[in-house]
């Protein structure tokens, strides 16, 4: 907030408080011209107005509220650029990266600032840290049989993963279904944990310039034929010859990098499971423009112990475990 608007807010707020205080004091005096308790000369439908003072309980409560408001404005931020006597804030502001967030926590503690979010995080770590540590010492294959562990993993999933993969983990266009057994980078416990810890970056290049419009059409026909789709056979045959440039990642049989123990995350093109859609138009779009999907890394955000529980829950989704 600029200095001008900060001053504007301070002056406006304090002026309103001064006016309210003045009105309260003014109403404590008798300006009606008649004695207290006497009639003011107004009557309507059998109801007569009397010159009664404000109830004492109401007056005391109003003064207490006013005093509290002054204390609150002085103690906490919110009055323009005023930081408050207690140096309290809800969270560290202006953070754009995990590194900045961690440094801000250190700086706030060194400067004696009371950051509410930091305090809550520390309290949560003290309370729940031993629980996560205990679960992290167990193998994922053991945790998938522990209902309590899976409940915690499900909460972690709902809070951090459901935004992309959906609350039911069935994904959507561009976001993998985690409830089936189709994995781009491997579905073993170790691979799932590795994916969550370090993230994944897709690298499907655009082939529009290399193949041309007709080439994209032919490769699309061949790719669709791999999963048993009906296509123009002439285009498919021509596309098969061009498919050699795709085989480096997908394999000559089109079964993807997992089938050939490669780290690329190239999908299986023979199973009719499509991350971005399996229509002719969707496949052509993929070939023309490529795909650059990103799975973020959660190691610095959640920590390895929470990721271990989260991996157990994700693993259970495709292995028919109760959760």
UniProtKB/TrEMBL annotation:
What is the predominant subcellular site recorded for this chain? membrane
Q: Which GO terms describe its cellular component?
A: plasma membrane
Binding of heme c 1: at which residues? 161, 164-165, 295
Q: What are the entry keywords?
A: Cell inner membrane, Cell membrane, Electron transport, Heme, Hydrogen ion transport, Ion transport, Iron, Membrane, Metal-binding, Oxidoreductase, Repeat, Respiratory chain, Transmembrane, Transmembrane helix, Transport
GO MF annotation terms: electron transfer activity; heme binding; iron ion binding; oxidoreductase activity
Question: Cytochrome c domain: from which residue to which, for each copy?
Answer: 148-227, 234-318
Q: One biological process GO term for this chain?
A: proton transmembrane transport
Q: Which domain of life is it from?
A: Bacteria
Q: Does the keyword Coiled coil apply?
A: no
Show the Pfam families listed in the entry.
Cytochrome_CBB3 (PF13442), FixP_N (PF14715)
Annotated heme c 2 binding lies at: 204, 246, 249-250
The cofactor note reads:
Binds 2 heme C groups per subunit.
* InterPro entries found in the cross-reference section: CcoP_N, CcoP_N_sf, Cyt_c-like_dom, Cyt_c-like_dom_sf, Cyt_C_IC, Cyt_c_oxidase_cbb3_su3, Cytochrome_c_Oxidase_Subunit
Q: Does the keyword Protease apply?
A: no
Q: What is the annotated localization of this protein?
A: Cell inner membrane
The cofactor(s) it depends on are: heme c
Q: In which pathway does it act?
A: Energy metabolism; oxidative phosphorylation
Which PANTHER family has this protein been placed in? CBB3-TYPE CYTOCHROME C OXIDASE SUBUNIT FIXP
Q: What family does this chain come from, according to its entry?
A: Belongs to the CcoP / FixP family.
Q: How does it assemble?
A: Component of the cbb3-type cytochrome c oxidase.
The UniProt function text for this chain reads: C-type cytochrome. Part of the cbb3-type cytochrome c oxidase complex.
What is the designated name of this protein? Cbb3-type cytochrome c oxidase subunit
What is the source species?
Pseudoalteromonas xiamenensis
